[in-house]
Amino acid sequence: MTIYKHKLVCILLLVTTLYSCNKPKEDENLSTSHFGKSISYEKFLWKDARNDTLQKSFVYSFNNWAAEANSSVTITLNNGENELIKNKVPYHFLVNDTPIPDGKIILKSTNKTGDTINLKLVIPTQINTDFFGYITIADHNLDRVNDIENPNNTNIYKWSATQEIQMNPLKVILLWVLAITATCLFIYLLILRPIIFKRMGKGQITIQQPFFKNINVKNNIELVFTNKKHKQGFFNKIFQGKRTTITNNFFTNPIYFTPSVKSKIRIRTGGHYSIEPFTTTFEKGIIYEITNNNTKEKITITYL
Fold it and tell me: What are the TM regions of this chain, as residue ranges (predicted)?
């Protein structure tokens, strides 16, 4: 084949750049094509895993003289060591969705299907790092490529890409929900619950007659005297506070004791009992007599 002198061809112009010429061969002076960032995370519950494939489109063109001579250019995709990309690296390229196991791409002026190549970078492994390499002229039958004379084994572009390992978004959401829930629970239990559900201070109620019983009232939000057994639920105890139930047949209707001011406790009988001396709050050191208005039975109580 006769090769005409001064044939010119501009190879691999970025679609967004469209033109590049007179670039020195030094690495710092190469045009860089950044494929972007690949986001990768593992599957978590029903949220599928993600591993982005990066894509870049390049255009190339042969001038009229090169086209008439059926010219071609072979380029290679090299790694950061400027070595041909093979199976040793944790990524691989696809050209127009086709694997290139030998790392070589042949561009022919006789190709009538188009002057664009779609280059995809696939990173099947999870590595939180940056990748880079070179697009190199390996062989040609042209005088110039990108205004470079005798461009064999010449880097014409530097490619770069990034893979970022992230936590699965569903896991992130759940962790945030757990953190917010734990914080709210902490604030409620330590700050809000004591304000909403006041607790009794140190003290005890002693029933002296007709039966004897000591009841420690400390940290209770309520005491209930009743003739029916009742067990406080776990969550009710956690979110409200401790309730103590005293069961005896004397209490045909419930009596409720709740915190009051200045170490006093408030008593609510619902009108079913009479208290002597009459009061709605028990004070420490005073003996009270409570009469059941239905049965006329009496008990003696002291708050100490």
Answer: 173-192
The structure tokens listed for 212 are 């004897």
Domain containing residue 274 = 204-303
Same domain, 228 and 162: no
Query: From the CB of residue 267, how many other CB atoms can be counted at a distance below 10 Å?
Result: 22
Say if residue 58 is in the same domain as residue 102: yes
CA distance 169 to 24: 44
Q: Residue 76: beta bridge partners?
A: 104, 136
Lowest mean pLDDT among 9-18, 82-91, 204-213: 9-18
| 47-71 CB burial, b ≥16 within 10 A, e <16 | eeeebbebebebbbebbebbeebeb
pTM for the structure as a whole = 0.65
Q: Which DSSP string corresponds to 34-75?
A: EEEEEEEE--BTTBPPEEPPEEEEEEEEE-HHHHHTT-EEEE
Predicted confidence (pLDDT) per residue in 71-121, tens digit:
788 888 888 777 777 666 788 888 888 888 777 888 887 775 567 888 898
DSSP strand pairing (9-14 vs 54-62): antiparallel
Q: Are 54 and 36 in contact (CB under 8 A)?
A: yes
CATH number at residue 74: 2.60.40
